[in-house]
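Structure (tokenized):
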């Protein structure tokens, strides 16, 4: 068995000033295990580091992130479905002025950050978030806040009520401990504005067209406008290639005779996507899952992920190693 090299104490001391014991153990796990196995006693210097780290709260569990400036934290808050009320925004401003430096940063995933929170104010700030009616974000090795588009609530292209799903996932899954950070994204249509294919688990709204042949006048409008070129007229009869169809809903919206009705609807689910330094596009796991089955399906996906992953391994790495067929098989076993 190979273990990491001896920890540089200067580096570890610096880390202990702003990281919790969980993070120190996680990062230097192999070396610390080696110390225990070899019955090598900690030096006074090492004891000092462990005590310093043990005294720190697990900031990331509560959505606080140490800044590069020593003694300062970023306070992250989350919302449901990307929405905030006017009262919530006023309370947010109060928090920024009282505990931060008066600034608010909006993250790429619809989160909110207040920089400049002093470490000694951590518990007060956390309590103030709750009292203001807002919710802290979560970081670290767990399910992160959900990012979603407006869906059918306001978007002309939205096929699905994304906001209800986002709130459900926020209440039931956000903060759940997993082998690595895990991100969800919900998109209401094939435009995929929230990039569901680039998240650990992505949900994309879908609506498949169903042709009522007696109403079709073979005008060809749907053929000309279909983004996937999945429609054609054969002997003045409309033919749909469902293998090519994106289930985007464009044809149903523009059919002048309403011959194209809404057929199957639901969510396409992608797994194993990832952005960042080494990006990866997720694989399509299943199609047309109705909203009332999604939480059960998602729970099976996360159980499978926990079974197959090693500590710190993202779902994208599991997908690359095991393949979509094995993941699909294990998910279906849990559902049945």
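Design, position by position:
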């Amino acid at each position: 068995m190979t273990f990491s090299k001896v920890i540089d104490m200067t580096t570890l001391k610096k880390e202990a000033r702003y990281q919790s014991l969980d993070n120190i153990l996680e990062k230097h796990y192999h070396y610390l295990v080696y110390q225990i196995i070899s019955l090598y006693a900690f030096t006074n210097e090492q004891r000092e580091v462990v005590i310093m780290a043990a005294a720190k709260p697990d900031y990331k569990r509560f959505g606080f992130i140490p800044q590069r400036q020593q003694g300062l934290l970023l306070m992250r808050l989350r919302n449901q479905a990307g929405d905030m009320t006017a009262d919530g925004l006023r309370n947010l401003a109060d928090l920024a002025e009282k505990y931060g430096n008066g600034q608010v940063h909006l993250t790429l995933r619809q989160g909110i950050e207040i920089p400049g929170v002093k470490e000694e104010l951590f518990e007060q700030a956390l309590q103030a978030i709750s009292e203001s009616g807002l919710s802290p974000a979560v970081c670290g090795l767990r399910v992160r806040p959900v990012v979603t588009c407006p869906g059918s609530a306001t978007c002309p292209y939205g096929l699905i009520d994304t906001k209800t799903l986002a709130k459900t996932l926020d209440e039931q899954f956000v903060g759940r401990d997993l082998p690595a950070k895990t991100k969800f994204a919900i998109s209401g249509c094939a435009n995929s504005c929230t990039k569901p294919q680039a998240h650990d688990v992505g949900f994309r709204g879908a609506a498949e067209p169903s042709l009522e042949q007696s109403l079709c006048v073979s005008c060809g409008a749907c053929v000309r406008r279909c983004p996937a070129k999945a429609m054609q007229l054969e002997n003045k009869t409309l033919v749909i290639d469902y293998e090519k169809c994106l289930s985007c809903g464009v044809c149903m919206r523009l059919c002048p005779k309403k011959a194209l009705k809404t057929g199957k609807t639901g969510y396409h689910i992608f797994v194993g996507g990832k952005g960042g330094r080494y990006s990866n596009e997720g694989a399509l796991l299943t199609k047309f899952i109705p909203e009332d089955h999604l939480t059960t399906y998602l729970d099976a996906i996360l159980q499978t992920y926990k079974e197959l992953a090693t500590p710190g391994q993202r779902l994208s790495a599991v997908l690359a190693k095991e393949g979509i067929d094995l993941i699909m098989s294990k998910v279906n076993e849990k559902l049945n």
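Reviewer-requested clarification: The domain at 147-335 is CATH 3.30.413.10 (Sulfite Reductase Hemoprotein; domain 1). The chain has three domains: 9-56, 61-136, 147-335.
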